[in-house]
Amino acid sequence: MLATALGVCIGLLVAKYSSSNYSPPVTAAKPASTVEQLQEAGRNIQASAQRISVIPTLTQRMNILLMGVDSNGRGTQRFTSTRSDSMILVSLDPESKKVGMVSIPRDSRVKLAGEYGLDKINAAHAFGGPKLAVETVQENFSVPIDHFMVIDVQGLRKVFEVLGPIEVVVEKRMKYNDWAGGLHVALEPGVHRLTPIQAEEYVRFRHDARGDIGRIERQQWFLRALTNKFKEPQVILKLPDLFKLANQYVVTDLSPEEMAKIANFGKDIKSNQVISATLPGKAVCIHGGSYWQPDFEGAEIVFNRLAGNPMTPAAVAAVPSNSAYAATTPDALASGDSVSCSIKYPRGVEKTARAFEKQLGTAGYKVKYVLRADSGDCQHEQIIQNSYKADDLLTKKLQEAVPTFSAFPVVVNLDERAASDFVIILTANTVAPVAPNLEKRPDATTVR
Q1: Are residues 198 and 280 in the same domain?
Q2: Do residue 280 and residue 347 come from a single domain?
Q3: Is residue 146 exposed (0-12), middle (13-18) or buried (19+ Cβ within 10 Å)?
Q4: With the CA atoms of 112, 317, 308 and 231 taken in that order, what torsion angle do they form, in degrees rounded to the nearest 10?
Q5: Which among 422, 416, 433 is positioned nearest to 338, based on CA atoms?
Q6: Which band of pLDDT confidence, cut at 50, 70 and 90, is reported for residue 293?
Q7: Based on the domain organization, do 368 and 423 belong to the same domain?
Q8: Measured between alpha carbons, how far is 133 from 112 in angstroms, rounded to an integer?
């Protein structure tokens, strides 16, 4: 019974940061709802637990499409004709014991499944509910989706009220007032234990130069913070209240047994085992409308790395040899093509940054840049994969060469104009490196 309830709550917590501002209502057919199924599962949870004598184990990869929808106003039904203001493909891989998380910007311009034509991807849920949204993602990105979970963000603050204060790194000063939407953001930079209202402000803020893309990245870091919160012993006592919220604010096609599998898999996941990415692309204006134009070539690479989706031979062949996405061949490595890194650090950390530069150079890496960046961009230690060459295998080699990096979360941020394969982000609290491991030199005999 505990495992089943925990599974629901993990799904709720993963999906809950899918918060966003109000979207205009769209007339559509009522989506196929599974609210009744979830409520029935709640009423029969004890009977379900009795049938599950051993906690089920996740034995193969599971891909779940998470969506956050907002209300269309008073008197409207939840989950009906609502746009998905946030969309995340989460891939749970029991083999590697990692979680891949690809955020799909709500303004992504794609062809909707069926006869709806080109539109923003968030319209799929409004037109046809979770089913059409799942079909749209599958058809555009050729990634298999096993299940979906939709959360009404009206329950966002209620979830935070149950969980209690959440320790979060606020990257920069955030000030914004939306009187119509009832959102009043007033956060200062630094590590804070956010109240329920402040937590909602943090995950919804998008009024800076990076807009929705910056908000997506903050939400991904917030999710990592939630993994720590969920491990607190006292959260177990709050499961009944969380389960009630799930019944009211969540729609999913996950069965109680599948939720138990997620719970069993997720209980030992650490922050650095969550790999995140945002769908590659660029902001464009088409006929006066703002869109995110996906880079489908880069998207295939991202879903390959984070969701285990095999790349088609045609896609591999289509990658230009001079593209940052082009694979590095063994011949190129043998000819001296080294793996390159850049280091970013905040003010006051130059000595530590130079120590890492020296260690990377000794281990055979080409350090292109050591840059002092704005403190707001250096609040989270991380390894950023910038190129096709910087895959999971090379990341592992990098972490073996510099053991300090093993604790750094990995972020995929493919960039055709990337100056280096990896970008290492240091913070004011980053510990200086230990002695270099010379046996892990990335030469042609060790890198493939």
Answers
A1: yes
A2: no
A3: middle
A4: -90
A5: 422
A6: very high
A7: yes
A8: 8
Classify 282 as helix, strand or coil.
Answer: strand
Q: What is the mean pLDDT of the chain?
A: 79
Tokens of 426: 């240091």
Tokens coding 102 = 């690809």
Quote the CA–CA distance of 175 and 184 in Å, as a whole number: 8
Residue 412 lies inside a defined structural domain of this protein: yes
Would you place residue 332 in the very low, low, confident or very high pLDDT band (cuts 50, 70, 90)? Answer: very low
**347 falls within a domain:** yes
Q: State the pLDDT at residue 36.
A: 58
Structure tokens at 167: 């320790």
For residue 85, what pLDDT band results from cuts at 50, 70 and 90?
confident
pLDDT band at 5 (very low <50, low <70, confident <90, very high): very low
Smallest CA-to-CA distance from 253 within 14, 7, 13, 33 is with: 33
Q: For residue 43, give the H/E element and its range.
A: helix 35-43
- Whole-number Å distance between alpha carbons of 123 and 444: 48
Domain boundary (245, 272, 307) is at: 307
Residue 433 structural domain? 330-440
- Domain count for the chain, please give it: 2
Is 22 a member of any domain? yes
Tell me whether residue 225 is in a domain: yes
Q: What is the mean predicted confidence (pLDDT) over 176-182?
A: 73
Burial label for 118, CB within 10 Å (0-12, 13-18, 19+), is: exposed
Query: 342 and 397 share a domain?
Result: yes
